[in-house]
Amino acid sequence: MPKRKVYVVPHSHWDREWYFTQEDSKLVLSENLNFLLDYLKEHPEFPTYVFDGQYSVMHDFLAKYPERAELVKRLVVDGRLKIGPWYTQCDSLLNQTESIIRNLLLGKAGAEQLGASMNIGYLPDIFGQHAYLPSIFKRFGINAAILQRGLYTAQIEDDLNFDWQSPNGDQIQTNNIYFGYGPGKFLSSDSEYLANSLLPMLDRLAQMTPETKPLLLPAGGDQVLIRTHFPRIVAELNELELDYQFILSNYEEFMEASSYAGKKIIAGELIAGQKSRIHSTIRSQRVDIKMLNARVEEKIYQQLEPLALIIQNRGGNYPQAWINDCLRKLFDVHVHDSLSGCNSDETNFDIEQRLLKIERVIDGYINILKKQLTRGIATDAIVAINLIPKATQGLSRFIVFSRAKEVALKGVQQVLLNSEYISGGQKVQVTAGGEQTVELPGYYRHEIMAEVAFEGLGYRTFELTAQSIPQLEDGQNTIENEFYRIEIDAGNMVLTRKYDQRSKKNWFDFENITDAGDSYDFSPQGLPVFSTNVQLVNTRQSNILSEMTIQTRLGEQIIETRIRLEKGSDLIKLEHKLNNQIKDHRVRVRFHGKNDTGLSYGDQGYSLQKRLNVNPNLVDWREKGFAERPQGYYPLERFVVVPETEGNVSLYTKGLKEYEATDDYLALTLFRSVGLLGRDDLAWRPGRASGINNKVVETPDAQLQKKLEFAYAYRWSESDDIAEDYLAAEYFADNQLTYQLQSLNSFEERIERFELPQPQAMHDLPKTLNLLTLPANIFVSSLKKAEENERTILRVFNPAEQSVLLPDLRQVDLDEHQVERKASLQAKDFASLEIEL
Length: 837
Description:
Low-confidence stretches: none
Shape: globular
Distance between the termini: 65 Å
């Protein structure tokens, strides 16, 4: 009987930061990579080495050692060193799907510039797998994946190889590294090691793999040096009378040798926590960082890039180098562990500061582009810009500076939210007699909400007139619009859906419970406390906008909530503010309603993922050897939908990533407050601490003892129309901007006070512009400049169950190379189109 082949893959798994900082990591990287490169150059008998599938580490290294680039290229071209395809390996359930695509776009291109990108979708350690990763990999030309976490043992016990399928039907060959990425880290020919470690693992892998297929033994670990003795050890193992033949190789050669024929399909997201921990409640850890990241992503993809395309179309410059620099820094935040928040306080501080620096660059460039556009239209213009190629109508926020106490936009319905007088300050003039200080006259800052309609991607221009406009007037105990009425009645908060008069009494409340967990996992202790004593603070109303402010007591905490209704919108916008001074606890908001389906639907990528509210393994998870309790806590990218007996309820969030649905309520986790990086034997996670299990790392900053604010929207609809849910998500995104060209205030925007040149071609621009209008049933993931030419990349998707007709445009793959595809967009599918605006 022939021996089973075992592909031993030497590798390093490189955490860019964790309980250590990036500076620590980069110093060690310099030493390790220099040693690795020299060793591979001098020892051709060591055939190949995988450096973790993320190009960023090589990018960092060559920034300090550019003289080593030629050696790196030679080793990569010869197949001796494997890098890419990621820029950084991201925790894919915590960011926008567009970030996953851009991460691979920059990483694969960078690796190819050094000779080649590893043709494996490598996912050794991330906490759960995004449902669309197979399709994303395939459309980058990557036809195989290797992953560790997220599978049930029953799915793979007969074969660790399978076809992984995305919701749109795309499939790629995949292998599960059942024992993780380090089972061969201490590979040895020692008899005790063979008997107690290596052979039992190989025998188990052999049981789970058809006889005709090879076995995979990853041989590496976190930040490890190359094991220079591996060629000798492999030779010694092959001289022993074992049932296995060992081959020192790489992942690409293993997957080619496996040549899986598609006998088994595993579909969708992989978020099981049986063999490997998924840490399903890590999505509410350090939510301050997660919300900041969501804000930065939205500003890049939904604001800066489409705004820059409008500028490019009008003759200005698209700041591609700056955008890609921001993206690289952003992907340093998305790397596994970093965005999860399971880091030391020092590292989380660095992550937060990185995001703030990115945001400053984005805000600055948005300021520049808005100013250049508006200067090209008129000297006194006020412009509203629509950054999504859809016909839309809603409320836009304008900041207007004027000497006049009363001012209005011509031709639209509007309401004055706030008006304040600002001193003009002083101006220093240089004269022949020396410097003189001159008092400048003051002016007013007016905050206006106006109803604005757009035909598509483009802008509208408004004129100002000196007249009064309606203000938000104090009301009684009720606010309403066409869709809802919300009132406080005898201390009860009542929501009424106006078209059928169905009502919910005290339709949401807050829950607080002690958290005895760590940075990875929530661990309940004791009984929860629920909010009481809803008190009305005020109501303010107008014909296009009304809002209610209430206070709620939750134990020792006071939560202030502002509820806003807008004309034409069936979204109820909610904002919560509190000053958290409590340690070791978790706060959720619960929306009450009867759900007898046992299901919820979370938005992920380009469709909704169907989830069971109660995992069937919950009754015997310990007996089945689950690494963690399979609670019904799920991720969401932008929104979650729950079918209730009286209509669907949807929640649309900005960076809140964790929900639970039950028969009686939909709970959205606002935050966790916990001060340890790791802790043993949690109620829902038995055994060792995750991460570092031999040192207690205290993280007092993770207690989030500070002022916290949360914003999201609630929708209660009779229909279950998927397109309506996604239209609401588009509406909730911040994809409109406004700007006033003025000289009174130079500090409202980031770089107003600096002199800026005007692009030569950007003069005499039209007062209105529409560049592109898409049908309502096609949704936009991205609108950007192509990497290699002046064309525009429009990424669209269809979340529905039926196909839709695409515009007659050239299609490209995710690496922006032309492909031949059908003219229709299939159910739950996406497409990248190359267009000229």
